[in-house]
Structure formats: structure tokens, C-alpha cells
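Two entries, shown back to back:
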Amino acid sequence: MINQGGKIYDIKKRVYFFAIKIIKLSNKFPRSLSSEIVLKQLLRSGSSIGANIIEAKASSSKKEFIKYYGIALKSGNESKFWLGLLRDSNLTKNQDILTEIKHLLEELNEITNILASIILKAKAKKYY
């Protein structure tokens, strides 16, 4: 389930490990009122991606499947906002943390592209 570049093919596993990376990032971040608020939002939206994919897998209809993947995609896009805010707000000058944020944004772009593709394919199919 892992390709030559080390990427995980299974979207459920990929978003699970993404959520773990978000948790680890939040534990490294310098604490302030601003960072606490933004990190809380990031943790919520970043972990919601996987939770909604799990809900989609248990759906009873194509419409419900697409709905939950749509929510996962929206959570991914929201997570991009929070990561960008952390990166650009000068809440940290730590280059290791900023590099980690950059990699998380790259991973999240790939994840949201995959989610959008799954939604489009599900909409195009007669059955899901």
C-alpha cells in the first residue's frame, strides 16, 4: 500500500497518519493564546477529515457517501487555512516547525486532490 516515493495509497491510512502529524505539530508549537486557538481549530478540522471518510465508508447510499466525502474535503480545505495562518502569523520563528508546516500543506494538497477525485468519480458512477 506504499509506492516508491513512500506515499500511502490507502486514503483512510493516509489521513489517519496526517492527523497524527497534526497532533505532533501541535505539541511542538510555542504556547500563546493565539497559537492555542489556531491549533485547536487545526486539530478539529485535521482530524475531521478521517472521521468523515470513516462515516462515508459506512454510508447506506451513494448520496450519503458523497456527502461525507464532501465534508472531509471541506475539512481539508479548512485545515489548509489554519496551517497557512500558523505559517504566516510569526507565532514561531523555528525553521523546523515552519518546514514541517510546509510538508503538511503539501500532503494536504495531495489529500484534498484525492478526495475531490473520489467525489467526482462517485458522482459519475451509477453505483459507488
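entry 2 starts here
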Amino acid sequence: MAQIVRTESSIIFKLGPLERLISVHFRKIEVPISQLQNVEVVEDIWTRVRGVRAAFTWRKDSFMIGTRRGLFGKDFNAIYGVGRGVSVDFKEAKWARFVISVSYPEEIAALLRG
């Protein structure tokens, strides 16, 4: 299952081997911490999905993993089922948003906010 991790200098979206294969994304997904704009706990994670699908696999209300593109830039999603998760927005970064399903979103949000 995908993980989101904060280091001293960046936020990293870690994918498992199967997730890398499904999303066709093999490089490290990383954004400098200085470009963090907002971290939000979301009750219905599907409401944070935006844009047009690029390289990813999805099945409505079941799972979505991969990139979505739009005028906003690129988002990376790792959503499993319905329910809660974390949405992380960035400013002036390669990635505009990370959206991830997690079972403990408050703790992840607090960790990312520092």
C-alpha cells in the first residue's frame, strides 16, 4: 500500500512494487517541503480527485492509483475503496497534489504539517 513520508527536506510518496507497475510510475515521487501549501484530512477521499486521467488504473469507488492532469498541473492519487484520507497541496512544484487513502489521516496530516 502507498505511503506518504516527510523527511527533513521533502515529502515522498512511496509506492509498493505492484503499485509502481499499475501506475506505470517507476521514479521516486518527491516534493521539497518548502513547496508544501496545505494538508487536509478528507472524509470522502473521492471528492479530492480532479483532472483527466493520465497513466493510472482505476475503478470507480474501488481504487485509483496514478497521475491525473489538468490546468492545475499533475496530481498523484493512491485511493483504495471509499472513506477517509489525506490531500496534500503544493505550490509551484512538479506535483500539484498528492491524494492518499489512509486509515489514520489525522496522524499523517499532523506529521506532514510538522
